[in-house]
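lol forgot to send this yesterday, sorry. struct tokens for the thing we talked abt
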């Protein structure tokens, strides 16, 4: 691993175990510092605009708290289907309804990343098209009852059972659908660190 962050400390502003796992797999040293925010957004925003807005909002919660040598990473994932954002399901009924909407059609998964340093910020996103096979109600109910995907946008994890049996193809970044576009993050960190003193 090259010394991408040799002069900087990466701070992850997320408690997502999937984002934590990806950073470890990328061999990036980091600490976690999570501040909860209100994740509502202006209703006129669509798709990637929602993801970028929320990633930036998460960064704004840390305003004035970053050391000069720290780079904060915040992120947000949006599942966009038929001009609608499918957020985290609040209960079993909502999760089943979401997966029924995704069944037998394609949707877009957009993950935005926001890198923030004391005097610089970079916001970008990755869009991926995901294609679901037709799912039976019994398959959907089994998945929701067994995996309880209430911490995931769209009420599913591509890396879990439903993704293995139900997703026929993706066009874009697998890691972005899981929750962090790793290649985009790596290249964005290179850009950010090249501009910092």
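and heres what i got for the seq, position by position
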């Amino acid at each position: 691993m090259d010394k991408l962050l040799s002069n900087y400390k990466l701070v992850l502003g997320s408690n997502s175990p999937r984002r934590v796992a990806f950073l470890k797999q990328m061999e990036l040293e980091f600490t976690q510092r999570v501040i909860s925010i209100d994740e509502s957004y202006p209703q006129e925003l669509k798709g990637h605009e929602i993801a970028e807005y929320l990633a930036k909002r998460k960064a704004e919660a840390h305003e004035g708290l970053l050391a000069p040598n720290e780079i904060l990473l915040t992120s947000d994932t949006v599942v966009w289907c038929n001009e609608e954002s499918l957020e985290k399901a609040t209960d079993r009924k909502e999760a089943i309804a979401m997966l029924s909407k995704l069944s037998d059609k394609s949707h877009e998964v957009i993950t935005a990343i926001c890198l923030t340093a004391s005097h610089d910020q970079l916001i970008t996103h990755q869009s991926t098209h995901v294609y679901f096979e037709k799912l039976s109600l019994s398959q959907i109910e089994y998945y929701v009852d067994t995996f309880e995907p209430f911490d995931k946008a769209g009420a599913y994890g591509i890396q879990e059972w439903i993704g293995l049996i139900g997703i026929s193809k993706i066009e874009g970044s697998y890691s972005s659908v899981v929750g962090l576009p790793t290649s985009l993050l790596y290249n964005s960190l290179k850009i950010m660190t090249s501009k910092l003193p």
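The helical segments are 17-25, 48-60, 92-102, 137-147, 161-166, 174-178, 182-195. anyway ping me if u want another try
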